[in-house]
Design brief:
Blueprint (H helix, E strand, L loop, with lengths): L1 E3 L5 H5 L9 H8 L3 E5 L4 E3 L8 E7 L2 E5 L2 E6 L4 E2 L1 H6 L6 E4 L3 E7 H10 L1 H25 L1
Antiparallel strand pairs: 1-2, 2-9, 3-8, 4-7, 4-9, 5-6, 5-8
Helix pairs in contact: 4-5
Length: 146
């Protein structure tokens, strides 16, 4: 994976699951410390069982597959996020992720996320609410599918 600046993806990030509804100043504080990762097709981005949370990821280009072993659980596209489970509860990652196509991912390391939470309670409340709504939607989908 290579690194680049995330500012050119600001509009996508502003409409992404975790950052939807943040005011422009808060978006600047969120986008600024993050970075852009590039993942080649087939490359692993996150491994199931990692002991510490690397941080929060948002897909800005391409597709990423969520899997456990060889079982595909989901495909994430532009604006979708991952890494939030471990970021919130501090437990090992629950699934692995690999790029299906060439992908660009916004990445906010967990230490910088925690600093944002401490220093900007309004932005933190918006991000946590967005993540909670997303997690509830996933649970509801699972309940109706089973």
């Amino acid at each position: 994976m290579t690194l680049a600046g995330p500012h050119r993806y600001r509009a996508i990030l502003a409409d992404s699951v975790p950052f939807r509804g943040l005011d422009p100043g808060a978006m600047d504080r969120v986008v600024g410390p993050g970075m852009l990762l590039e993942a080649a097709p087939g490359s692993q981005v996150l491994y199931e069982g990692e002991r510490s949370s690397p941080g929060l990821y948002v897909v800005v280009e391409g597709e990423v597959e969520v899997h456990q072993g060889e079982a595909r659980l989901n495909v994430l596209r532009r604006g979708d996020c991952f890494g939030e489970y471990s970021l919130i509860d501090g437990k090992p990652t629950s699934a692995s992720l690999r790029a299906i196509s060439a992908a660009r991912l916004y990445f906010l390391p967990s230490g910088l996320f925690q600093k944002l939470v401490v220093n900007d309670s309004q932005a933190a409340a918006t991000i946590y609410r967005n993540l909670l709504v997303e997690l509830i939607a996933r649970l509801r989908d699972m309940n109706t599918a089973g």
